Amino acid sequence: MKKTPQLNHIREQITSVDKSLLELLSKRRQLSLEVARSKEVDVRPIRDTQREKELLSRLVKLGREQGLDAHYVLSLYQTIIEDSVLNQQAYLQLRADQDGRKPSYTIAYLGARGSYSFLAAHRYCERREMEMQDMGCHSFDEIAQAVESGHADYGFLPIENTSSGSINEVYDLLQHTNLSIVGETTIDVSHCLLAKPGTTSEQISAIYAHPQPISQCSRYLAHHPQVKLHYCASSAEAMELVSQGDHTMAAIGSAEGGALYQLEPLERHLANQKVNQSRFIVVARKTVVVPEQLPAKTTLIMATAQKPGALVEALLVLKAHNLNMSKLESRPIPGTPWEEMFYLDIDGNISHADVQQALHELERITRFIKVLGCYASENVKPTRLENSQLMIEPNSSRQEQEAVTECDSARYSREFKTNVTEVLSGELHLGNGSLTAMTAINAEDLLPSVGQQALALREAGFQAVLINRLEQVTPDALVQLKQQLNHAGLQCILSVLQPADLAVLQPHADMLLLTGKQMFNKALLSQMGALHIPVILERNTMASEQDWLTAADLLLSCGNQQLVLCEAGIRSFSNPEELTLDLASLVNIKAHSHLPILVNLCYIKPQQRAQLACAANHLQTDGIVLPVTDLAAQRLLLTQLYQQRCS
Ligand SMILES: C=C(O[C@@H]1C=C(C(=O)O)C=C[C@H]1O)C(=O)O
């Protein structure tokens, strides 16, 4: 279609607004560096989450006045603050490094330009304004040797990936090097299908890629069985081959990397997991001193005595010194079958007394211990706002959970576990004392306009969508459902009505709901108990409270502790045709069980809904489920509930 002059004019305005936005962002960065300089003088911590909270709630309010929704403003500013914190950290770390600046730094990494390791190294240097001379290597050993021999200043080694887990080869290498870990960096890995310009998807008959991306994109590749796969030593090699080939070839790699080989993305987001990130460690010959204002991580390896409880004993030392362990890995020790070397990441600075004391104590009870490095942690956890703040004026206060008295030794009981179970799924947090709002909808009503509806539901104040009647939905449509809901910041809960659906639904759900109709199905309870994603157990309309808790116990006994109960109404004698909400059960369960509980109001008479929602809210229910009708009214009700919860 021909562009009208009006369109051109509007686009010019957008271009000019974008330019101003970038100028302002750059100015904000400069100011943030000035803050870092002042913190250097006053020796104040870089991160100030209280300030971030105040700033975010003010901006959310201001944004709303300008017609910008809270979630949009929040996610933009979380990104901006992450950048600001990482820049401040990089600045202070550079100031603390004694050697002074070099005109350029030689960086050893795996593969060639365009590989993910190259991108990680490039970003790390860019943030530090370090000029990078890149030295592509063929193996992790070659990287370590390049740094040890002085041919390179730093080496970049991938240590873990959110979809494929730890990279054992790198852990094994760390047992033998004299190098120190001096930094870490995490990059988003977004796999694209890359081809020469002008290529169409239909032309592709061969895909070239490194084994890691192939395993991370297995679901996409399974949908294209006719395409031949070629394994390459690195993503860069795959891209190079394709750039020299014809239009039947494609590579898997990043869009940024592809651009270095004049390749264009034909398709994006190929990875099975939505969040696909790789963490790299930076190694050097000399250790660094991490300024005390920065969050530090200390990585060590140790071999414990060959006796029962030796590892627990070592971990208790950390507990005694109040040190958090963010990672624990074990690897075999070559030449000594069945003996393990443990790798630990501890949140703490090696120059602090608590870390040093813990290390001394560990020396006494281990057979071998070595610190691999202490470095600034780049894990900037986004500061969040309470759900209530996203809906109404900032006014957060959390009510404490009631104390428990009665005991019971079943797995669901508070005697078995004193702390309340907290169930986490994306931003959704059940069991922390706040109220979560969910809505329920049938798949056939959601599918035709899922993107649009998802945004409206999020704006109405819901955090999750429970989808019913999924029997006829194809796997492709399920992918769409989850993607679009997650994109709008909503969690996708799929309801399992029959056992045969479980295998199909599970890969596309953030959480699963076992419907009340299946509550007595022991086989299904066991299957869902073996899963690693949160499960909601709905009460059968004819089940006693004890039946329901017995079902919960069976599920918990199979391993899955991320369990949520859901009261959706029972048949009572007063009105057997309609469901009655069993609020007495809610009180009982809150008092005697550590499991979070939801109240589903979809099957209750519409006239009673608002009143019962308020009652359930008073009783500290962890979440409510409302039907999808009349969103304006639901928004009002939710605002009222959040307000009630805060007062
Ligand atoms: C800029 C600062 O440092 C950090 C970054 C912030 C930001 O970018 O807004 C806010 C608080 C701190 O975590 C500051 O303390 O003001």
TrEMBL record:
PANTHER family from the UniProt entry: PREPHENATE DEHYDRATASE P PROTEIN, PREPHENATE DEHYDRATASE-RELATED
Domain ACT, first and last residues per copy: 299-376
Bilayer-crossing regions: none
Catalytic activity: prephenate + H(+) = 3-phenylpyruvate + CO2 + H2O
Domain Prephenate dehydratase: from-to ranges: 106-285
Pathway: Amino-acid biosynthesis; L-phenylalanine biosynthesis; phenylpyruvate from prephenate: step 1/1
CDD domains: ACT_CM-PDT (cd04905), PBP2_Ct-PDT_like (cd13631)
Domain Chorismate mutase residues, every copy: 1-92
Domain of life (superkingdom): Bacteria
Protein name per the record: Chorismate mutase
Key words, A-Z: Amino-acid biosynthesis, Aromatic amino acid biosynthesis, Lyase, Phenylalanine biosynthesis, Transferase
GO CC terms, sorted: cytoplasm
GO BP: chorismate metabolic process; L-phenylalanine biosynthetic process
Gene Ontology molecular function, alphabetical: chorismate mutase activity; prephenate dehydratase activity; transferase activity
Listed InterPro entries: ACT-like_dom_sf (IPR045865), ACT_dom (IPR002912), Aldolase_TIM (IPR013785), Chorismate_II_sf (IPR036263), CM_dom_sf (IPR036979), CM_II_prokaryot (IPR002701), CM_P_1 (IPR010952), DAHP1/KDSA (IPR006218)
